Amino acid sequence: MQNLRYVNMLAVAALCVFASACAKKTVAVNTPPPTPAPAATPAPAAARPAPARRQTQNQQVSQATRSNYPDAATRARIDELIGRIQDAYFDYDAHTLRSDAITTLAADSKELALILSQYPDYKLKIEGFCDERGSAEYNVALGDARAKAAKDYLVNAGVSASQLDTVSFGKENPVCTEHDEACWQKNRRVHIVAEKKNG
User: Fold this and answer.
1) Alpha carbons 164 and 111: distance in angstroms, whole number
2) E strand map for the chain
3) What confidence score (pLDDT) does residue 47 get?
């Protein structure tokens, strides 16, 4: 009887071993580790303008705030210089600057050029005139050539060509109306005036 009990226990033990051997084995699945989240890329710091660029911007602001047109005191000084330059005179039927015309234009033209260089919007007008002899068409062309001769001289003295306009009145608007050489000489001239500001 005891043997039977012993055999039963052995049978139960064998069954347990057999059952555990036949049981489905669970295979451990090697899952890959989760992909790490990308590190947050710091936002790029605002790029600072290079010193040269900053300097250029400052210059542009400075130029924008500074007027290109002279104030009243500077305009008065320009008018004074133009008045001292006076008129430049020419020989009959000629547009070449005479030595006395050059002396007249040379007076204060360097200072005038220096002032005008600071005010690029400010312009002068060079007016050309002739005496009464000759046709109107001929004298308009001659007056224009005289005005351009004076302009060329002032450009060589340093005045910007863009600040000098020319106009010819020919034999119109004479300063003297007598019919002799002394009077005609006064009318063969160039005259410089400041142009009025537009607007």
Assistant:
1) 15
2) 88-89, 124-129, 164-170, 189-194
3) 53
d(CA 126, CA 90): 14
pTM, two decimal places? 0.64
Number of domains into which the chain is organized: 1
Are 82 and 108 in contact, with CB atoms under 8 Å apart? no
Mean pLDDT, all residues of the chain: 79
Question: What single DSSP character describes residue 92?
Answer: T
Stated as kind and residue range, the H or E segment containing 188 is none
Nearest-angstrom CA–CA distance, 127 and 84: 16
In a domain, 57, yes or no: no
Does any domain span residue 20? no
d(CA 150, CA 159): 11
* Tens digits of residue pLDDT in 147-194: 999 999 999 999 999 999 999 999 999 999 999 999 999 999 999 999
Alpha-carbon span 195 to 79, nearest angstrom: 11
- SS3 state at 189: strand
Please say whether the beta carbons of 148 and 166 come within 8 A: yes
Predicted confidence (pLDDT) at residue 67 exceeds the cutoff of 50? yes
